Structures are given as structure tokens and as C-alpha cells.
Amino acid sequence: MFKKLKEKIKQTEICKNYSKMWVYVKPYWGRALLAMLITIPIGAMDAVIAWALKPYMDVVMLEKGASYTAYIPLLIILFTLIQSIFNYTATYLNTWVGQKVSMSLKADLFQKLLHYHAAFFDKRNSGEIVYRFNNDVDTSCNGLLSNLKLFTTRFFSSISLIGVLFYNSWQLAIVAVIVLGAALYPLTTVK
């Protein structure tokens, strides 16, 4: 059963694309991994802000003031600042790795381009070749890395927000998880 699942996962388009790019990412995998690991606290900090708002709203709305309520907005600002620093670092590392991967891929494409037959250049104009050579590589490399960063951030944000929902009200959390599952199910059929 696991062999069939493993083979099915390997045949997906996303796995094929990432396996092709692995050759180019491999020399920089440490920084790429660090960038992906940094996205875990970025997503989890979304829940910290949501978690901090509940006691603040309870105190402000019900008790009409308390001595420690002034610190909660400062903590939210602090967590947002830390989250922004992590986001900047992850974006910087992803961009750095993306540029290095792009340059390696362009070098290989250039070697391949040098050995094409003259008929290839007769059928296409030079502008199209240069445009494809430069832009397609950058778009594919940056797209794969930024999509992976975005997916990881949103995944851990969703998990941590669901945890906060269960902490606040498990009944509401069950409804939210069902609605989330119903919203995400159609995405599994979209290619």
C-alpha cells in the first residue's frame, strides 16, 4: 500500500519539478533548508497574536480595564516585529538560493544552447531566445522556492491557528476544521 502511495506521489507534477531542480539546489541545500525552517515560526506567530487577543478582549470588554492590559498591544507589536525579521530573513535566503540556482541553470542552458543546430536559430528570432533564456529560468526558480516558502508558512499558520481555536473553544474549532476541509477538498482535484 505504501509503495503505491509513494509511486503516486513521485508521479505528481510538483515532485517531478522539484526533483529536476534538486540537482541545482543541492549545493545550497543548507541555506534553502534554513529558509524553510524559518517559515515555521513565521506561521506559528500568527497564532500567538490571535491567542493574545482573547484575554485582551475579555479584560477590556468584561472587566473594563486592568493594569496589565497595556502590555498586550506591546507584546503583539513585539511578536509582529520578530515575525517580520524572520520573514525578511527567509525571503532573503530564498532569493539568494533562487539566484544561485538560476545562475547554475543558466550556465547549463548556455552550454546546451551553444551546441544547438543552426536550424534552431533560423526558426526563432534572437529576442525570443534571449527572453526565454533569461526570464523563464528566473521565473521557474523563484516560483518553486517562493511557493514552497508560502506553502510551509501557511501550513504552520493554519495548524497553530487551529490549536488556538481548540484552546479557546473546541466546539467552534471542530466546525472550523470541517469548513476548512470542505474548502480545501476541491483544491485536491485542481491540477
Overall structural class, as computed from helix and strand content, comes to mainly alpha
**Helix share, percent:** over 70%
Question: pLDDT average, as an integer?
Answer: 82
DSSP strand tally: 0
Count helical runs: 7
Terminus-to-terminus distance: 24 Å
Radius of gyration: 23 Å
Largest sheet properties: none
Helix-strand sequence: HHHHHHH
**Beta-strand fraction estimate:** under 5%
Looking at the structure, what is the overall shape?
A: elongated
The parts where pLDDT drops under 50 for at least 5 residues are: none
Brief write-up:
By secondary structure, the protein is mainly alpha-helical. The protein is 86% helix and 0% strand.
Give a verbal description of the structure.
The protein is an all-alpha fold and 191 residues long. 86% of the residues lie in helices and 0% in strands. The chain has 7 helices and no strands. α6 runs antiparallel to α7. The longest helix has 44 residues. It starts with a helix and ends in a 7-residue tail after the last helix.
